[in-house]
Each structure stands twice: as structure tokens, then as C-alpha cells.
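Handout, section B. The chain below has 188 residues.
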Amino acid sequence: MQTHVAFMRAINVGGRALVKMTELQDAFASVGCKNVRTFIQSGNVVFDAHEGQAPVLLQKLPTVLRELIGGEPRVIVRTAGDLERLVKADPFRKVEPAGAPKLYVTFLAEKPKGKISFPLVSNADCLEAIAMKKLDVFIVSRRKKNGFYGFPNNFIEKELRMSGTTRNWSTVTKIVALIRATAPNLRP
């Protein structure tokens, strides 16, 4: 068995696609995913599948999810090993903590076309995409003059002209900790 994490885009955000996590777990289990569990309410689903089976199972998922969320689902999957390596690499280790920045990862569904030069900066939203590794973009969000932080998903999608889903870095590290606790024999 191999552990995977499905990051669903736009679940329980802004009052749309409101889904109970138990319903989301049932949807994943209904297509054959094993040991399904969710983490917080934003559509993070941890599941197990026999090696090589995840793509087949995920092809069945949109039909079930369309009915559940009332729209076209966008699901981006990483293996537990991918996330373990990401956390170990600590892509934010050189970010200065001054101003208490928020750190984010945008998971892309596919490789951007053309070469991307980092950093990508949005002065209006106080965002800086500092790097990308494989299909994961690392973003620093600093507090704006109004006291709020910018949220990077729209910025990254506009800059890269493609869909992705964004998670706070602390959420990613907590998901990895959950997997470590529930799958101690994780293969990185």
C-alpha cells in the first residue's frame, strides 16, 4: 500500500462547495481508496491505495464528487513520500521571520509551459513566489498595510496561467506528521 494526499481545490471556501468531511471520506472510499481520513475542513484527504492504483481510482472520483460538491472537482494528488521529501527539504529555511510572514505551497496539476523566473512578486498583495520544485510553488505572504495577508492562489494561477490549489505550510507539515503517526513505515 502507498499513502497519498488529495488536495481539493475550493472546498468549504467562501461559502461554496460546502462538504462535510465524512461525506468526502465516503466519496473516496466508494471508489476503492483505503484508510481514508481528512485533515481540517479544506479538502485534504489522506488515503491508501495499492501501488500504481491511485490514478485508476482517481479517474472514478470526479463522477462521485460532482454530485457531492455541485460542480467540477479539481483534485491534485501527491504521494506521502513526495510530501515527506518536501518537508525535509524545508524550502522556506532562508525566509527571514521579520514581520511574521505566512508561508504557502501551491500544488500545481501540471508543469507550466515555458521557463519561469523566480521570484514572482505581487506588490499589491505583498506576495512573493520564491521558488518552484517539480510541481510545487513556494510563496511568502507578508502583512499588507490593512493588516491582512494576501492569499496566493489567484496570484499563482494568474502568473502561471494554470490551475493549482494552495495550502498553508503549517497545514502541509501537520499532514506529514499525521501520516507519520498513522503510517510509520512510510517509504519516502
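Note. The helical segments are 21-30, 54-69, 80-89, 152-160, 169-182. Compare this with the example in section A.
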